[in-house]
Amino acid sequence: MILAVSLSKNLLSPADGYRGRFAPSPTGPLHEGSLVAALGSWLDARKNGGQWLLRMEDLDTPRCIPGVDQLIQAQLLACGLYWDGEITYQSQRHDLYQRALERLNTLKLVYPCNCSRQSIANALAQRGIKNPRHQEMIYPGTCRPAELSVNSPEFIETPNTAWRIALPPNCHIEFTDLSLGQQSQDLNTDVGDFVLHRSDGLFTYQLAVVVDDAEQNITHIVRGEDLLSNTARQIHLQKMLGYSTPHYRHLPLVLDEYGEKLSKQTLATQIHTQDEKSTLTELRKAAKHLRLRGLPDGENITIAEWLLAATHAW
After folding, report:
1. Burial class of residue 303 (count of CB atoms within 10 Å of its CB; 0-12, 13-18, 19+)
2. 10 Å Cβ neighbour count for 145?
C-alpha cells in the first residue's frame, strides 16, 4: 500500500471518488494480454489518485483451477501492482445476483428459456442467418412470451431452464469510450434477449459484473477491447436496475502469431516474475503495447521507480 500512496504524489488531482478494478478469472495465470489489462487499469487509477480493487471472477466454477487465484495475486504483487481493500470473489456473492434477478422479475423483464445452442442455430439458419465465427448467436426470441408477467417466487430454481432479459423495442445503446470514442449498438439486432441465469444454475458474467461494479461503486472500468461488445448489454442492465454507468476505457488486445487474441484458450504462456529483471521485462512489454513513451530502460531501476515513471507517462 505504501507504493500506491507514493505514486499519488505530484500527479493529477484525484478524480472525484475514482474507483477502478481488475477482475481476472482464475482459470489460468496471468499472461501478456492480461498483464496489459492489469497494468492499464492500475495506471489509470493511480494517475487519477483513485483506488484499484481486485475481484476474482470465479462464477464459472467448473473452469476455475484451484490455487490459481493465489498465483494471480503473487504475480500482481511481483509486478508492484498492489490493490486497495480486500479481494472479492464472485462465487461468494450469489445472494446479490439473485436479488438483482428478482428485481428484474418484479419489473416483468425476465422470462424462462429452454432453447439449446443447436435449436437457436437451427432457428437462425431457417431465417438464412449465419453466425460469424467467434461471435455469439443472436437470440431469435423463440421462448419469449407474447405478454411478460411476474414469475413465481421460486422461478430461479426452475431446473434446466435459463432466464433471459426481455429487451424493449429499439434498444439502441450509445456511449463514449475514453480510448475509442463514440460507440453504439442495437441490442435487438446484434444480440437479442440475452441470458442472465444459465440452465445449469450459474449466473452469467453480464449480470454479475453489473451488480459487482454497482455494489463496489466502481466509477471507471479499464479492460481489454475483447469486452467492448459486452458494454452495451451492461449499460442496459445498469439502467434497468437503477445503477449509475461507469466510464469505460477499452485497451488494445495482444494478438498471437495467427492474429487471434492471446488468451488461456490459445495456450498463452504465463508471464515470468521469478525475479525483478524478468518482471521488469514483462512490464516493459506491456507498457510498449499500451504505447507509453519515455520510460526508463536502464537495468538498475527498481520496479517501484519504473511504475512511478509509467504512471506519469500514462
Report:
1. middle
2. 10
Taking alpha carbons only, the member of 168, 164, 165, 176 closest to residue 245 is: 176
* pLDDT computed for residue 5 by the predictor: 29
CB 26 within 8 A of CB 72: yes
- What's residue 155's pLDDT? 87
Tell me if 224 sits within 8 A of 36, measured CB to CB.
yes
User: Per-residue pLDDT tens for 82-127?
Assistant: 999 999 999 999 999 999 999 999 999 999 999 988 888 888 888 8
Task: Look at residue 284 and give its three-state secondary structure.
Answer: helix
Residues in CB range of 20: below 8 A, 6 or more apart: 41, 42, 44, 45, 50, 51, 52, 53, 218, 219, 220, 221, 222
The pLDDT, as a whole number, for residue 262 is: 58
Q: Determine the Cα–Cα distance for residues 3 and 217; give it in Å rounded to an integer.
A: 23
Tell me what pLDDT residue 178 has: 97
